[in-house]
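We close this part of the discussion by returning to an individual protein. The sequence in question and its structure tokens are set out directly beneath this paragraph:
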Amino acid sequence: MAPGAQRGHLLRIVFSANAVSVSSAIVAGLALSFALYRIFARWVENNSSDAITLVAGTLLLAAVSAIACLFPALHASHIDPMAALRIDKGDLRKAVFD
């Protein structure tokens, strides 16, 4: 890890970038869900706009995206940035995964 940097700083940067992407996707998805509800209600028998379904889908999406960005962020926090800049890609993979 870089001198002066802490693992928490890197995780905060990664999670804040992920939060922006996921929250904008959730807002767009909910807006489209409410906007297209009347059109799709004719074709679909079950009501998919109840609160439990929307909240569960939102929480599931947030949890999966948090887990998906946690592992690469933890892996990146163990790599020395200066060593990564000095080594070409093939040698870096060998140094990290060996």
User: Anything to note?
Assistant: The chain is about 80% helix and 0% strand.
